[in-house]
Automatic annotation (TrEMBL), chains A, B, C, D:
This is Gfo/Idh/MocA family oxidoreductase. It comes from Halovulum dunhuangense. PANTHER family: BCDNA.GH03377. Keywords: Oxidoreductase. The keyword Amino-acid biosynthesis does not apply.
Amino acid sequence: MSGKKTVGIGLVGAGFMGRCHANAFRSVGGLFDLPVAPALEILADATEQSARRAAAELGFNRGTGDWRLLVADPAVDIVAVTAPNALHEPIVLEALAHGKAVYCEKPLSTTAASALRMTEAAEAAGALTVVGFNFLRNPMIRLAREIIDAGEIGEVASFRGRHAENYMADPNVPHSFRTDPAGGGALADIGSHVISMARHLLGPIDGVSAESRTIHSSRPVSPGSDKRAPVEVDDVTHALVRFGNGATGTLEANWAATGRTMDLSFEIAGTRGAIAFSQERMNELLVWTPGRDGRTGFTRIESGPAHPPYGRFCPAPGHHLGFNDLKVIEVAELLAAFAQGSKGYPDFREAYEVQRIVDAMQRSAKNGLWTGL
Amino acid sequence: MSGKKTVGIGLVGAGFMGRCHANAFRSVGGLFDLPVAPALEILADATEQSARRAAAELGFNRGTGDWRLLVADPAVDIVAVTAPNALHEPIVLEALAHGKAVYCEKPLSTTAASALRMTEAAEAAGALTVVGFNFLRNPMIRLAREIIDAGEIGEVASFRGRHAENYMADPNVPHSFRTDPAGGGALADIGSHVISMARHLLGPIDGVSAESRTIHSSRPVSPGSDKRAPVEVDDVTHALVRFGNGATGTLEANWAATGRTMDLSFEIAGTRGAIAFSQERMNELLVWTPGRDGRTGFTRIESGPAHPPYGRFCPAPGHHLGFNDLKVIEVAELLAAFAQGSKGYPDFREAYEVQRIVDAMQRSAKNGLWTGL
Amino acid sequence: MSGKKTVGIGLVGAGFMGRCHANAFRSVGGLFDLPVAPALEILADATEQSARRAAAELGFNRGTGDWRLLVADPAVDIVAVTAPNALHEPIVLEALAHGKAVYCEKPLSTTAASALRMTEAAEAAGALTVVGFNFLRNPMIRLAREIIDAGEIGEVASFRGRHAENYMADPNVPHSFRTDPAGGGALADIGSHVISMARHLLGPIDGVSAESRTIHSSRPVSPGSDKRAPVEVDDVTHALVRFGNGATGTLEANWAATGRTMDLSFEIAGTRGAIAFSQERMNELLVWTPGRDGRTGFTRIESGPAHPPYGRFCPAPGHHLGFNDLKVIEVAELLAAFAQGSKGYPDFREAYEVQRIVDAMQRSAKNGLWTGL
Amino acid sequence: MSGKKTVGIGLVGAGFMGRCHANAFRSVGGLFDLPVAPALEILADATEQSARRAAAELGFNRGTGDWRLLVADPAVDIVAVTAPNALHEPIVLEALAHGKAVYCEKPLSTTAASALRMTEAAEAAGALTVVGFNFLRNPMIRLAREIIDAGEIGEVASFRGRHAENYMADPNVPHSFRTDPAGGGALADIGSHVISMARHLLGPIDGVSAESRTIHSSRPVSPGSDKRAPVEVDDVTHALVRFGNGATGTLEANWAATGRTMDLSFEIAGTRGAIAFSQERMNELLVWTPGRDGRTGFTRIESGPAHPPYGRFCPAPGHHLGFNDLKVIEVAELLAAFAQGSKGYPDFREAYEVQRIVDAMQRSAKNGLWTGL
Ligand SMILES: NC(=O)C1=CN([C@@H]2O[C@H](COP(=O)(O)OP(=O)(O)OC[C@H]3O[C@@H](n4cnc5c(N)ncnc54)[C@H](O)[C@@H]3O)[C@@H](O)[C@H]2O)C=CC1
Ligand SMILES: NC(=O)C1=CN([C@@H]2O[C@H](COP(=O)(O)OP(=O)(O)OC[C@H]3O[C@@H](n4cnc5c(N)ncnc54)[C@H](O)[C@@H]3O)[C@@H](O)[C@H]2O)C=CC1
Ligand SMILES: NC(=O)C1=CN([C@@H]2O[C@H](COP(=O)(O)OP(=O)(O)OC[C@H]3O[C@@H](n4cnc5c(N)ncnc54)[C@H](O)[C@@H]3O)[C@@H](O)[C@H]2O)C=CC1
Ligand SMILES: NC(=O)C1=CN([C@@H]2O[C@H](COP(=O)(O)OP(=O)(O)OC[C@H]3O[C@@H](n4cnc5c(N)ncnc54)[C@H](O)[C@@H]3O)[C@@H](O)[C@H]2O)C=CC1
């Protein structure tokens, strides 16, 4: 219909994130003015059957139970990886070997060592890579970054961030790849989001001191099972952090935070102003800057067309964005980078840096020492 | 790809709402499990050129500058109308004459008399009709309705609602179809939203007493023009309302509400509980119900999979919906009704009832009297 | 101890407000730098016994069961009236006859006619009068007034106010002076607060159209009684209002507002800015004024020393004021006016104007017509 | 007037807190039903002149420039200490030597060693002691404690607290006792508040790991001076904490928190529920407990008569308390303990425990190690 160059998409995984990726690839063309159009070529899932069903539902031309076929398929230009974390490395390495661009869900892998292998392979291949830290795509986060970069809040002095949800608060939530000792735990799963946010806004982290805790010592081995197995990963991690620019602060990853469903939040105090945000109210940014005595306070800025790329979704303010829209923005930037041959962001190198911090926190939580990076 | 029966979509208008409809039709298939799949057949816009460009951008097979061709086209099953209000009646009547189902933006028309003609034509044709009161589709509004219907807040005693935005607050915003004396004004434009909400939640309105005011007496005749013309419609209308169930309250429509971008909000007091909502925080519903002394308060419920059809967008709570998602829900319900041959909601009859209230308020604002319905 | 001239205080009534007045008179001297010091001379209550007990508890020298003795006592300079509304007129008239200054709780009386008699008597006597509309004393309200008066939000276009509480929401709350057909009802009781607020901030009201409703048709005749008697006053009143300056809006008085304990709130839209406030968060004022595109929003100003007379209570911001502090401010202004021989505010004339509006709304609610003032 | 036994009060210091204490002693008798009545005997300040003036203003019988006279005076039963921190120990030890009860502002002293000396002296003397951690007196905090103690949120798993203000955010705020290397710094000054809160709600803290930072390296030596001297204390301290009950968390003390005036706040996650609070909205407690699917959320409980001793201030809900009211509650509990001969809370022992934690954090911040307690 559009006569645009098409880009073949191969999607691995059809769960929570797989569906979200599929939706983004379907929507993006009608919202963003892109030089290329995604073509939903192949979907790979755990089994042939589930892959076929999902492909039909989500609008892919073909389904396969074998991701190896997908990453090797000539119709596929970009491989989107939404399989469990432990599969990221094998899938990605093989996709890179076939010369594909790779769009991988966070965390990049289960260990920093693995993430580094993936990063080096991608850099050697000169491949476009993007990692799914979708919360960075929020126009309100873009605004926060602009305010900081412009020096409007002075020098950043303190960062207090967390990612707190309650999806593992119930001790009867069963084991899954999320509790796998290899790469699981609250810190790896959602701590990676708030670490990426901290880096995105403040830059490098130099040192960490962390404290981890397993609140529920056992969980059912699988959904509905009476058998329980011990939990070896953290439910909650609190960490002190030192940034390269001198700022200090704390980060928390907590998947047993009763009452919270998406408190990816932070407060940044600069020497002349402050910024506060929570993903629970993702269309609002609270900003404090100096002003007339008795007239200052946090200003609640609501997202609108003045905050790109909000205008792509709606020409009027007040019509808020939702979570899925963040993924659409991510995919738009991925496709633009693909079309232009430019670098992706956050790329594997950036995701590896996040992973190094996760690893450093895990080591610190074990040995009780500050850990440099 | 899916083998589903397709439903041909003809979209009239490619502005703010036209793009929103197009996006919804593109997305809905991957999110909802529908028996039919929409096929984006024709897009009609003001000119041939703009229609062709928009068709390409939004993924329609064809574009036309003449909506008469669209409504007559055999490939079109559903005509979606997002043209300016004054065009709704001619387009809809002709679409009905061709046996089409009609999905029309709100307000249904510029006067109650016109809306009644459209309603009667649709009923005579036995056509499926749906009107774009998208805010009713919010899972949080569905929850509010369930709470009221189950009697959880007792008998509803009072409703205090408004739709307040600031898009006309600046006296230099020019004239447009929104300020057309035939069917324009804040009350018709956004008052219709809060009236439909009030009816959706509390049922029929029996009487109104209204007060309208034009804050800015003139506006530029067109964008960028130095010439100004008088404004003949209301910038703000406040009204007293009496509901059929005995409840009383107020409604406000205000498009000059400085500081507000989407305060479609209400507070409902029942004899045993209360509900409060604002579209500014569309993923939250505040509910008060009796409890242990000293432990009660408004509970801030966040939307999640427990609130259908949220789960269609995301299997986990905390990942909020955005405005465009409401349109996707609307389109899903439209297509389901089309596939099942069932009635749409809100249909023309319902939209006509809304329009009668708009009209009654306009009359009351002129003569200063309570007006029955 | 201080050598300051003392002012003899006679307090009539030792209930909710009586105790609040007593506390204010005790505290004020240590907080405000006043030229006079209040001396707590006599307290009158319904019976000799309760008056004596209350006098001892609240620090008055003497107690009496006969307010006639109090208003005639030469040691008394200021008569503070916190008895039920129906007693305001007789007490006040006699106090004025004895040349006293009068500090009377709101509403001034049970009817506008009565309030006018009191006002004329006070003006004839040249007496200092102050009426207890304590919510006007809030430093945040003073700020709101300054912002409006300075034209910072442009011309005021719309006022949306209410005073909503839940203290009569339960149909088993018994009758009291508050439900007395002579001067009772939600509108008289708390509507008077929001009317005084509206006048304080926007000036005269020219016309009203009101709708009243009795939600609970009967109540126990007295606490604990099984016998019920019909309710003849309003539980909730909604009104349209037109201000002298051209602004329009709504006012609500609701004592059956489930979930609300003190929603004396308003939103004011001016042509260039907006102000929002709720007594539920009495230390915050939300202000919107124009600014850089994409950077505006409501600013949450917290009360502090920059907002007089906050500094009298605390030299540092963040240490919020409470309700009783508002009464201390009221008493400080009363005593300062007494010492300087200046006029009080809001005086009887102002309270009479409020009462006229209450009366006009009551008439409008009966006859369904707009009522001029 | 009341015939009650009087208790002689000697107040040292007439600054911010001195005035607040004086107000509380003046007000308390009319609000609380106490067996004793405070008599404001002597006020000591830095100079004879300032003491005399303050005594007159605040209602004390006498003023003195020598606190030694005050603590020795037979008319004084309770010595209230609101002098700068470094003076706490000498004043308190001498007051104890004279057999007085002591009511001392926080922090108890400048070092843990000093606080221990004071504690042991008080215990040896069998003296009543109370320390001014007034934030614990909030009815909402009492409610939080009850909810925790009753197990309503299950086992407490995580505590995230801070005390953040902005009073030192400006590098031109001069040196004062608050920046004295002996006992100064954000951690000692306001960190003590959030530490006392954490202990009050969760019990003992076993270990800490802290990170301190001086944001502004120099400040004027005195108000208005051009001369600057280096700052040797922390502007912000972040700490990891381990509680005796197994919970983990973070604490922050920050007096350079731009935008914040009183964010003494915490969020507590238990295994079955959660509590959140900020002193910025001191009349609200947010509580999450399990409930019907899709109906849970944080409930905003507003303070009212159901939350003792709120009812002492007002018989109706919605009439919020202010900061000064917390001090009145503190003084009421002090006087009640004095009259009954019972122990005070928080007493010196408790304040010493707080101080030990401050000290441990300071050591940890220096050596970078976890520090046990
Ligand atoms: N960016 C974000 O906000 C989020 C990112 N994620 C990330 O997305 C990834 C997937 O998580 P979810 O979608 O929540 O998990 P999920 O369990 O819902 O989905 C995983 C999918 O992978 C498929 N799969 C398993 N083995 C496979 C194989 N051998 N070949 C092909 N497919 C296979 C499963 O059948 C399933 O469809 C994880 O890396 C996770 O960390 C998850 C949720 C949110
Ligand atoms: N449901 C909602 O929340 C909203 C509903 N609306 C409604 O949607 C309708 C359109 O409003 P907007 O999209 O905001 O206006 P718009 O001005 O952005 O778009 C109107 C479109 O109609 C086209 N048009 C004009 N004359 C035409 C003709 N003769 N044939 C075909 N197309 C023609 C224009 O070229 C333009 O593309 C109105 O009825 C409005 O009330 C608008 C905004 C929000
Ligand atoms: N400014 C404000 O925010 C408020 C004002 N009010 C006003 O204060 C007044 C009193 O209300 P509440 O204190 O709530 O009532 P209340 O019922 O608590 O107290 C009334 C007091 O008047 C006494 N009284 C009755 N008859 C008397 C008599 N013949 N002589 C002397 N005392 C007599 C009663 O014994 C009782 O102590 C009313 O006018 C009410 O509208 C009440 C609450 C809040
Ligand atoms: N509980 C709370 O929320 C707060 C507690 N504080 C504590 O209260 C204490 C005092 O702090 P502020 O009132 O803010 O200080 P401030 O500087 O306002 O007042 C200190 C007072 O002590 C007096 N003073 C100094 N030397 C003296 C001497 N030799 N003899 C007698 N008086 C002397 C000064 O003249 C001044 O009146 C500190 O320990 C501080 O930590 C302060 C603020 C809030």
